[in-house]
């Protein structure tokens, strides 16, 4: 699949991650995707072929151990461990892909959460010989919790069950049943052999009973979170959640105030820019147009958008997530980094009480009474851990009592913030519902946080300002 | 204090449903908002540049005159418009640079009104704080002057033009990468990077390396150079040069790379895919004389950029990883 250069200008960007244990053939699948889409260049392939030969590898993939393509660091090769997430890149005529290659078992929810937090889609592997396991339910539950826009299931090793249609149909039905039981949109399911290449990049003749696209074909056609129109159109047909950043109400965390005065870029006229005051940021969700009414948070003041300057000062009539822009406002207001500019009438009263799900990423356990930092949007505030309401049993996905959270736990935690933040439930707002928990002592990231429902949220219209 | 049980977000049928607040702020997306991959990469890079400038006291940007740093600096001019780029640039000069590239560096700094900080490998050699290597390669010697400049200037964040597609060690690198007081990278102890919330917290003596173009590929860089009309040093385009072949690479004849008796000098039409130390950077045979030609050539290439032209990465299978652990970019 060589890339037609003329097509590239229009190509979109799609981010996806993989979930599955090594036994499911995840490394081989990733290697196969990269290899068959011609993302692996000759010198890299030569190096992998040499190592494969030294290890006595042979077989269906032409003597190359595709898993070695994802086996990067010295420590990983020497000790057989895998270190966190690696990012890989490939492109087809339709799309550029960023693949977050997440190692490990789903018990290491840390890795899955990290890779999936930015993903448009996650590919979950199931071994065709084993079918839907408790582990599959765990994968799907965590991805549902993270509100990954699209979940795709690859039933791998279909060659080892004789390309059996009935095996595949049964697994697909089981996947659908699990998805329905946890409230997840039914995923697209593709039969593949990562080792032999069936239905990974091109459609296989050995599964004539399967009429759908290859795995890559699915990934090429799923709407990205950056493309609201196709997402909305596809939400009914592809099992998508329809959850896209650009279809949400407008949210804009202010990164910094651009008031250049004396420090103007060379060539610009001091007269023209003397009074320039713009608010720089990346649109977290939704879209904005000149003339729109907006609300500033946490103060609740309102004004309208007087101008939108794109990168380098291009005047825009409107802009949408995830564009980085500079907004100019109609009124002279003192807005600072950390504030949020939002579409008027769509936000709630900021709150100091944060009810959340935390995915605990640190070996240092979380205890009630701890002091932490919360980074939400462009704002970092102090916080106190008021209560740990329980942690998820990753097998039943029920909340069980707990007084602390350990590495890889997901728990329900109540925090009290030093200042009120414009909190929104993660389930409806993937960008503005996410936050980090940071250790105030050494600065390390302790947890991925997702804002939960605030008690009383069901009568939410009262909170709209 | 409330002790009610709060359901964990979104699990099961009872979890939160989206859509409750979609009414007022939702509108059909304007056509202009259908963003190309380059638009999305540009926005992400600008977001990272602004985050670092907002959260750090003394950032600086590594600038070598190579294509990646040129694109990164161009992104900075767009991120802070109408202000000037709000930090100095730092060049670690191996003393073996291509004169065209040094000239380009100086013109760029002048044009944008920037302050240039130079960390000089030659000065470290002259003072006896570094020793020349037997193979003559100076790229691995850059780490000490780099860390020296960071300490002397008290930089707390340094932007680098590293891309994750360049090398398997860089594929594991975070966008914001914490370095200890020795500048070391510890791949086993990296902070997880979640959503687009970058954690720049550090203690005194530590600093952060920030990689705004992590997610760009070599082809993205060239397509962006074409789209934006960005000027590069002339050695990126086909020109005739006296070269000799060593280890399958075409090395320029010059004061820092002399052919051995067994290596005949020939005139070839070449260009450079990367710009580094003359002693370890090879040229590729190419007739690509314009940006458009280069885009076509890079899209069709069957060799990685570093595999084709960087001798320092051939030292061992983990050469880049080992240098990064020591404090290199």
From TrEMBL, chain A:
The EC class name is transferase
Q: Which organism is it from?
A: Arthrobacter russicus
Pfam families attached to this UniProt entry: GTP-eEF1A_C, GTP_EFTU
The record, for InterPro entries, names: CysN_GTP-bd (IPR041757), CysN_II (IPR044138), CysN_NoDQ_III (IPR044139), G_TR_CS (IPR031157), GTP-eEF1A_C (IPR054696), P-loop_NTPase (IPR027417), SO4_adenylTrfase_lsu (IPR011779), T_Tr_GTP-bd_dom (IPR000795)
Alphabetical UniProt keywords = ATP-binding, GTP-binding, Nucleotide-binding, Nucleotidyltransferase, Transferase
Stretches with biased composition (Low complexity)? 230-246
Q: Where is the Tr-type G domain?
A: 11-227
> What EC number(s) would the UniProt record show?
2.7.7.4
In terms of PANTHER family, this protein maps to: TRANSLATION FACTOR (PTHR23115)
Q: What is this protein called?
A: sulfate adenylyltransferase
Positions of region (Disordered): 227-246
What is a GO molecular function of this protein? sulfate adenylyltransferase (ATP) activity
UniProtKB/TrEMBL annotation, chain B:
- InterPro entries assigned to the protein according to its UniProt record, in alphabetical order: PAPS_reduct_dom (IPR002500), Rossmann-like_a/b/a_fold (IPR014729), SO4_adenylTrfase_ssu (IPR011784), Sulfate_adenylyltrnsfr_sub2 (IPR050128)
- Keyword ATP-binding appears in the UniProt entry: yes
Question: Methyltransferase as a keyword?
Answer: no
The molecular function terms of the Gene Ontology recorded here are: sulfate adenylyltransferase (ATP) activity
* Protein keywords: ATP-binding, Nucleotide-binding, Nucleotidyltransferase, Transferase
Q: List, for all copies, the residue spans of the domain called Phosphoadenosine phosphosulphate reductase.
A: 59-282
Q: Where is this region: Disordered?
A: 1-28
A Pfam match is PAPS_reduct
What are the EC numbers? 2.7.7.4
What domain of life is recorded for the organism?
Answer: Bacteria
Question: Which enzyme class, named as a word?
Answer: transferase
> What SUPFAM superfamilies does the database record attribute to this sequence?
Adenine nucleotide alpha hydrolases-like
Sequence similarity: Belongs to the PAPS reductase family. CysD subfamily.
Cited PANTHER family:
SULFATE ADENYLYLTRANSFERASE SUBUNIT 2
Return the NCBIfam families for the record: CysD, PRK05253.1, PRK12563.1
The protein's name is Sulfate adenylyltransferase subunit 2
The record lists the lineage as:
Bacteria, Bacillati, Actinomycetota, Actinomycetes, Micrococcales
